[in-house]
Amino acid sequence: MNQPSRIHLFQGYGVELEYMIVDNETLAVKPVADELLKHELGFYGSDFTRNAITWSNEMVLHVIELKSTQPEINFNALENAFADDIKRINAILSTWNARLLPGGCHPAFNPVTETKLWPHESREVYEAYNRIFDCRGHGWSNLQSTHLNLPFYDDEEFSRLHAAVRLILPIIPALCASSPLIEGKITGSADTRLKYYKTNQAKIPSITGRVIPEAVFSKRNYLNTIYDKIKSDIAPHDPAGVLNPIWVNARGAVPRFDRGSIELRLMDAQECPAAEMAILTLIIETVKAFVNEVMCDFETQVKCRTEILVPVLDLAIEQAERAIIHDQSYLKLFGVPASEITAGNLWKHIFERLIYRGNDALEKWKPELEIVFSEGSLATRILKAVSVPGEWLPVYRQLADCLSQNKLFIP
């Protein structure tokens, strides 16, 4: 997200969507992201800006990222801009008999034989990662996510935003899981992308931590306890100093103090921009409710320990909206009186509570969110449609059509 000047809480958002480039018929990956960018730029470059949307490279050549060029407040306009650029990209990709495919993981990609790293501008960063971690694995070359950048202006706003974000991270997979297949097989986890994400940098544990960020609520403490630790731990593996600790930090929410934003990274890519904008709006409005102390007061938020949040996240990674939350202290944060509740029903509770308060932003996306609530996460809907294990191709062709037509997938 290019941010020319700092803005305050909830004055604009950066959205980043990652999609795979695949063969039009077989859906095998096609490593032509550099050729796609060259088509528009006239040379091999990393970024092409087209009005509200910027196209960017990622680590591997079969993935392209679309992101809002500037912080946006109007998600209706942003949805349309993403949809228009997806159509444009698909038209260009037809030259190579290719198209875009949504979803958190490719269902049949073989990372050992098919991984091709970005070979152009900034390639030294990817080469450094590859040298340290070996990126020929699903945890590196088969992770397609949605990132949401939430702004903050100063340390006070950071503390309130970080406190709120930590509390909703554990249940994000209940909305966003979309990666139940790997190498043609049902994995048993709704959010297989996050299973790999949790462990792909285990060689240097401080990089990812426990995914849920530590309870740190000031810039000074964050730099001292987290970024300095990452810098120290990665130095022996990166003697040339190519990797910046700020880029390397892989927690589920990453503060960027240089530009004043926290980047949420736990969302799997969804089937279309309409689904993305609906889910992101619910996440934003929930964060906003915590920041405004609608759910519970700030003091209660900062006291919530990481040890409470991590088990909820782990279960949601496995079961998405079906995960049953038993922890009373966690449920109390959301004003839930029940002794247990599924993660999906917790999101319904949040939605209904915010709608009851007259939330116009959520009202607009009610049809899309009701599909997610009634039919389940995209991972659940994919599994409903893949009736015979291994026969994923027709379902993922439908997903590619959903992306090109900007419509939600209903099995």
How would you describe the overall organization of this protein?
The chain is of the alpha+beta class and 411 residues long. The protein has one domain: Creatine Kinase, Chain A, domain 2. The protein has 19 helices and 12 strands. Strands 1, 2, 3, 4, 5, 6, 9 and 10 form an 8-stranded antiparallel sheet that branches. It has a two-stranded antiparallel ribbon with strand order 7-8. Strands 11-12 form a two-stranded antiparallel ribbon. Strand 2 (47-50) and strand 3 (53-57) form a beta hairpin. The longest helix is centred in the N-terminal third of the chain and has 19 residues, at 75-93. The radius of gyration is 20 Å and the shape is globular.
Summarize the structure.
The protein has 411 residues and is an alpha+beta fold.
Extended strand count: 12
Contiguous low-pLDDT stretches (5 residues minimum) are none
> How many DSSP helices?
19
Distance between the termini: 34 Å
Strand content: 5-15%
CATH topology: Creatine Kinase, Chain A, domain 2
Q: What is the overall silhouette? A: globular
CATH class reads: Alpha Beta
| Oligomerization category of the chains in this entry | single chain
Structural class: alpha+beta
Mean pLDDT level? 96
Instruction: Calculate Rg over CA atoms.
Output: 20 Å
Report the sheet with the most strands, covering strand number, pairing sense and barrel closure.
Answer: 8 strands, antiparallel
Helix content: 40-55%
Q: What's the CATH architecture? A: 2-Layer Sandwich
